[in-house]
Amino acid sequence: RMRLDSSGRLLINRTSSNGDILEVDGNANVYSARFNGNTTTGQSYGLRVRAGTNSSDKSMLVENTSGTDLFAIAGDGNATFAGNINFGDSHFIGDDADDNLLIQGSASENVIIRSEDGLYFRTGGNNTRLTINSSGNATFAGVVQADGNVALGNISGIARLQHEGSGQLKMLSSGDSHIATFTSTGTTFPSNVTLSNASSPKISITDT
After folding, report:
1. Beta strands 193-197 and 203-207: pairing type?
2. What are the tens digits of pLDDT across the range 43-78?
3. In what order do the strands lie in the sheet with 127-132?
């Protein structure tokens, strides 16, 4: 069941080589290999693999029985997964039904992103859309909700802006001129602001 051929290749449970130095064919319902480290505390080590120098190399490659790559670590340290990743009690990173990236926590659990410095959310072209600094202050380049039509910043096609805070909501022009103040008791306008009944939208606010 074990064979060492003339080229120094060791074959276990097989008779022909694919060219690898060590090849093992497993039996049904058992693992093909097991490595047990020493049980001494602080002195127990498992498997060490040293291979790869750049992105073209493979330090480690895991395939299914059809030869399809499932998990690979390149020589530059980058890892590639063919499927989804599950952590702990069903935390999930993978594709959703529309092939988008999905990060999902288990039921009734939060998803926490922790950074010792700033946190940046970027879209195509490396454009920063949301920045949260180490003090917790957030800066929006623009926020749009398809169902609620909410925007902050230079975004067109806005139909509704909603504010549910306990304080005031102030509307300013591009030159920081005061246009309107909204509170729980009403809305106030400075003397240089007028309301006009236009066809679209029905009510518009202009800075005169």
Report:
1. antiparallel
2. 999 999 999 999 999 999 999 999 999 999 999 999
3. 119-123, 127-132, 138-140
**Other Cβ atoms within 10 Å of 2 Cβ, number:** 9
Q: Which amino acid is present at 113?
A: I
> Coil, strand or helix: which one is 159?
coil
Cα 36 from Cα 55, distance rounded (Å): 31
Q: Please state the pTM of the whole predicted model.
A: 0.57
Strand (E) positions, the chain?
2-4, 10-12, 22-24, 58-63, 69-74, 79-81, 85-87, 91-95, 101-104, 119-123, 127-132, 138-140, 169-172, 178-183, 186-188, 193-197, 203-207
Question: What's the Cα-to-Cα distance from 12 to each of 28, 63, 66, rounded to whole Å?
Answer: 15, 19, 20
Q: Are 58 and 72 in contact (CB under 8 A)?
A: yes
- DSSP class of residue 125 equals G
Give the integer Cα–Cα distance in Å for 57 and 189.
67
Q: Determine the Cα–Cα distance for residues 6 and 13; give it in Å rounded to an integer.
A: 17
What pLDDT is stored for residue 153 in this prediction? 47
Integer Cα distance of 5 and 22 in angstroms: 11
Task: Express each pLDDT in 114-145 by its tens digit.
Answer: 888 888 888 777 777 778 888 887 776 655 55
